[in-house]
Every structure is written in C-alpha cells, then in structure tokens.
Write a structure and sequence with these properties.
7-stranded mixed sheet; GIY-YIG endonuclease; disordered C terminus; alpha+beta; Nucleotidyltransferase, domain 5; about 15% strand; 5 domains; about 650 residues; 5-stranded mixed sheet
C-alpha cells in the first residue's frame, strides 16, 4: 500500500481501530511511519498492543514532542520477539541503523569531549574529540567526560606508560620518527610491530577508560614478577613503572567509598521546563573513576522515563565488561525489571538496579543530583544569554519574531584562485554543523588574477535557493502538521535571516539575485562589514546605529566569524589539493583517479618522487607501464630501471 495516499491514523478512526487490533500482546519492537514512509519512531515493549494503544488514548497526556509525532503517524509496523531482552537488543540495532528523529533522547553534550579508540583500523588511534561519529561501528567512544582536565591528564600519562601510535600520519616515508627512538611509539608507521600485538597494548589502555585500572594492575603485576624471574630486568622495570602510574591515576579522585570492592554506577538528573541535565558517576573498586554528562529533552517523560531511556542508550554502546553489577538510580524506572534482565544477559552475571534506601547510597545519589543541578544552572544561564541575544537581534532588525534559523555566507580565495564559498547555520543561536555547506565557485570570469566577490556571492545565493522554487508550488497536505524543520513558508530548512559577510556591494548583489528569483519578499537579508562591524540593510546607504558590544551584534559577529573560518578552511583544502596534483597532472596517462590512488598510498608528491619503480608499480591501479612513466618524469636520467625488475 502506498502510504502517501493515506491519512494520519488520528484522521481515520476506523483504520486506527483495525490496526490496533492486529497488534499482538507479545514482546517486540514497533515502528511508526509517516506519509513519506519515513520511520518516525522505533520503540520496544513487553506487550506491544498495550504500549501502542497508549499513544492514541488521550493526546493531552502526551508530551508536546510525542504528540507531534502521533499526529504524523500513518502506518504502524511491528516485529515480535521471544523475550523482552531480545526486543531491547533489536530496538538498539534498529535505532542505530535508521536514526529516527523522535528517538533522540540523549544529545551529544558539545561542551564536553569524548575519548575515541579507532578499532576499525589495523593500528588503532587514541584521541580526544568533541564530535562523535558513528560511521564505523567498531570504533569506541568513552564519555562525554565532564572533568576535561582529568581526561587529558590521564591520556597524557597513558601515552607515557604505554608505547602507542603518536601521529595520525607517518612523519617519514622509510623510517620511524623520534617517538620510536625514545620508546613512546612501537614503530607503527613502518609496521615494526604486528597489528595483533599492538591491539593487545591498546586493549590494556582501554581498560583504563573502562574504569578497570585495578584489574589492569592485577594483570601487569604477575607479568612483572615473571620478567624479573627470567632476568629480563628491562621489561620488569617497564612493567613496574606502568603499575605505579596506574596506581597513581586514582590518587586524585574526589570520592572514595568505605567499601573498596564496590563497583557501581549512580545516575541522577535535574530538569526545568526545557532541559534535563543527567549526571552518571562511575565508581569502580570504591573510587570515582569517571563522571559523564548528558542532555535530554525535559518534555520526553517523567523522571523514571528519562532515566530509563538514558540508561538504555548509554549501556547499549558500552562493552559488557563495563557494565557494573549495581546501578543506583534517583527515581524508580518505568521498567526496571526489563532493563535488569537485559543488562544481566549482556554482562553474563546478575545486575541489580535499585533506588537507594540506606544512608550511604542515598548520600551518593544526593551528590550526583547536586552536580546535575549545577550543570542545569550552567545550561540555563547559557540558554538565557543566547535567548537575550536573539531578542536583541530581533529588536535591532525589527523582525516579527525571534529568528530560529540564521544562515551566514562568505567567500574565500587568493586573487581569484580556488574561489569557494561557505554556508553556516545557527539554530536558536547555536551552530548546527549538520547543515553547513561548501560551494565551489563556477563563474568562469572568477579565475587566477581576477576575482569578483559580488558575482560569487550572487551565484552562491542563487544555487542555495534555486531548488526551492518548484517545491513551493506544492505545499504539504494541511492534515499533516509541520515538521520541526518546517518554517512559515512551508519550506524545509528555510532561514529566518541571512547574513552576508560584506558591506553594501555584496549585499546589493545578493538582493539582485533574490529579486530575480522572486524571493526577496520571503527572505530577510543583511550584511555585516568587517572594518567597523557595521550592519547594512537592503536599499539603505547608511548602516544601522548599533553598539558593537550589544548581544545581537555579538551574535552576528560569531556567525560571520564562523562563516569566514569555514570558507577559509575549505579554500586551503582546495588549494592544497590543487598544488599536490599540479605536478602529477603533467605526467602522460596519469588521470585524476590514479593521482588520488598515488596520493592515498604515498601521502605526498615528495614521497612519490622518492619511490622506486618497484614501489610505484605496487600501487593498486598503476601497473608497471604507468609506473615507468611516473618514474621517468621524476628521474629523467634513469630510463633503464625497468630492466632490473624483469
């Protein structure tokens, strides 16, 4: 059946009643789909029929977020499982695969970093990042860590104690760097250590960030004694230093419980009308080894529902060995027995979830909740400052409402060469990097020695909004409520305000392009000149009277600076790629694709020039004949080396 021809189930009571009767009262997973066949939500339940019916009983009892979803449901599908645990596991896999919009509860807290171990690579890298990419299922992310200083200190100490890969790319082509000579790296770049042996080292490092430091010390201690008994005193000394370093990691911990055998997680949150700040304390062997922070939508449910979903999402991404045997929670969960069974099956032993009754554990939860309240206060203050900046901007520009989506544009080039443009997006005053875009300027008059920022900006704006012209003629059905990304003109991702980096000239060029597309009435566009931070409006010869320090102008400057940074970084990348390929393009028979293969293999033109004929021929797709052309180009006096290969 074509779902695009169906009404939402709320508008078709007969079909809704029939569909609900078809859902069995068994454990399983359910899917909510809209009229475009997009999956809105994936959920699980031990009784599918009861759970799905609960969405349609009384909309007034639902949160605004869930009510918006229910009004869009056109079809319901389900998969029956044998047990509740299977349902939770299946839901986790499906959510990770489809990423439904309404399944997002925990948000990446951009203020705090993660630690990443790239298990997808033969020689895994270990680094700190504020971006959590899930493109490689084998890669592991730990965090987000609230105590950033402790995270950096721990990683620094770990890299001193264990020989680890120090660079993402080799420094030299045919020899290791200084890190190998001083024992900081095992020579990964020259494969002086096998991938299997190196991964065993990284597994030990991972134990530190899993809170298993004591377990790691227990493993290293017998190895130290065996090395000493075998008179391998150098290895014994290395293991001794590592053990002392591992024991020192817990010396500065702020919390130590009387029972040093305790391994538990404690979770609590604090919320207002908009935000729920969740804190999770990881306690291993009686010591606080990690403090993780998350953000959630306060409208997503009551306290038990928020904690239940937070724990489900957190533990589905950790190794079974990281799951503690005891989890202390602030409020009773909505389905505590269900989660206990799931975690116990993953860990292979009993996992207990409890609301504290005794004084010691109650004090622990009280401390976690106090930290969550402090984080909520920080989040609220930041949101308030940002909201005031948006209000000030709306008053400054005489906007009808606070701008939700603001787009900024900038051009970058060097005397016309490698001209590019950037589009950055702020949602509610915050960068929304998933909507950032790059543009390569296609105007043939913009070339080396001749630049035209006005024409370039007009081209970018035209390309940005050209695709919306035909879409506007077909508005969405009135029975379907707008999605969270739909604005007043019924266009997805439509900006409330456009900021052009430049003065009257750039702004006039953009206004002319918008008028040609008949979009000037639907878009509000302004320019921000760099020299005096002046704000220009269309058709106005003088700038607005502003104070450079007022919140609205500061927001515009942040947007302008981000557009400039994004454009410059892309321009540098394009220029670097062009310079890399300029010499390779002169080699007969070496096309663009094989140039990329060579650069991917050797990393730079200098390494290609130093490579032997045999090394060139080993590159996938090159072959002996083309390798000879490449070698002769860089070594015109060496025409006979091909004979040595035969």
């Amino acid at each position: 059946m074509n779902v695009s021809q169906l009404l939402p189930l709320l508008k078709d009571p007969e079909r809704l009643a029939t569909r609900l009767k078809e859902i069995p009262a068994e454990p399983g997973v359910y899917f909510m789909r809209d009229d475009t066949d997009r999956i809105l939500y994936i959920g699980k339940s031990k009784t599918l029929r009861s759970r799905v019916r609960s969405y349609f009983r009384d909309l007034s009892t639902l949160s605004p977020r869930i009510e918006l979803m229910v009004r869009q449901i056109v079809e319901i599908e389900f998969i029956v499982t044998d047990t509740e645990t299977e349902a939770l596991t299946l839901e986790a896999n499906l959510v990770k695969q489809h990423q439904p919009h309404f399944n997002v509860l925990l948000k990446d807290d951009k203020k705090y970093p993660y630690l990443c171990i790239t298990w997808s690579e033969d020689y895994p890298r270990i680094f700190i990042t504020r971006k959590r990419f899930l493109n490689q299922p084998k890669d592991r992310y730990y965090g987000p860590y609230v105590d950033v200083f402790l995270l950096r200190s721990t990683l620094h100490l770990v890299k001193r104690l264990f020989p680890l890969r120090q660079r993402p790319q080799p420094l030299f082509k045919d020899r290791p760097c200084l890190n190998y000579d001083i024992g900081r790296c095992p020579g990964v770049c020259q494969q002086l250590i096998s991938p299997e042996e190196y991964r065993r080292t990284v597994m030990k490092v991972a134990m530190v960030f899993q809170g298993r430091t004591k377990e790691l010390v227990d493993i290293l201690t017998p190895q130290m004694h065996r090395a000493a008994a075998d008179l391998n005193f150098e290895l014994a000394a290395q293991l001794r230093d590592r053990i002392r370093g591992m024991e020192g990691l817990g010396a500065d911990q702020k919390v130590q419980l009387p029972n040093d055998s305790v391994s538990q997680d404690a979770i609590a949150f604090a919320a207002d009308h908009h935000h729920a700040c969740i804190q999770l304390f990881q306690i291993r062997a009686g010591r606080l080894v990690g403090r993780l922070g998350f953000l959630a939508d306060a409208q997503s449910g009551d306290g038990g529902a928020i904690l239940q979903r937070a724990l489900e999402e957190h533990y589905r991404g950790v190794d079974p060995v990281e799951i503690p045997t005891e989890i202390v929670v602030q409020h009773p969960l909505t389905d505590m027995e269900f989660l206990e069974a799931y975690l116990s099956e993953r860990k292979g032993r009993k996992v207990s979830i409890l609301v504290p009754q005794r004084q010691l554990k109650a004090n622990l939860i009280e401390m976690v909740e106090r930290n969550a309240e402090l984080e909520l206060s920080r989040t609220r203050r930041f949101a308030e400052r940002n909201h005031q900046a948006l209000i000030d901007l709306a008053e400054l520009l005489d906007l009808p409402d606070i701008p939700h989506r603001i787009e900024g544009y900038d051009i970058s080039h060097i005397q016309g060469s490698d001209a590019v443009a950037s589009q950055v997006v702020f949602i509610d005053g915050l960068p929304a990097k998933q909507y950032y875009r790059h543009y390569k300027i296609k105007n043939p008059t913009v070339k080396i020695g001749h630049s035209d920022d006005f024409a370039s900006m007009a081209e970018v704006i035209t390309r940005r909004f050209r695709r919306h012209l035909r879409d506007r003629a077909v508005p969405p059905p009135s029975s379907i409520p707008p999605s969270p990304l739909t604005t007043t003109v019924d266009q997805p991702n439509w900006p409330d305000l456009i900021l052009i980096d430049g003065g009257k000239g750039q702004l006039s060029a953009v206004v002319g392009a918008l008028r040609e597309m008949n979009l000037m009435e639907d878009l509000r566009v302004i320019g921000l000149a760099k020299q005096h931070e002046e704000v220009f409006l269309p058709n106005e010869s003088v700038p607005l009277v502003t104070d450079p320090d007022q919140p609205g102008v500061q927001l515009l400057r942040r947007l302008r600076d981000e557009a400039h940074r994004f454009a410059v970084s892309f321009h540098r990348q394009q220029r670097s790629d062009r310079m890399k390929r300029s010499r390779l393009s002169e080699i007969p028979g070496l096309g663009h694709h094989r140039q990329k293969q060579l650069l991917a293999h050797f990393r730079s033109v200098d390494y290609i020039r130093e490579a032997s004929l045999q090394q060139l021929a080993e590159v996938n797709g090159i072959g002996l004949h083309l390798a000879q052309h490449i070698f002769n180009y860089f070594h015109p006096q060496s025409d006979s080396e091909i004979d040595s290969i035969h």
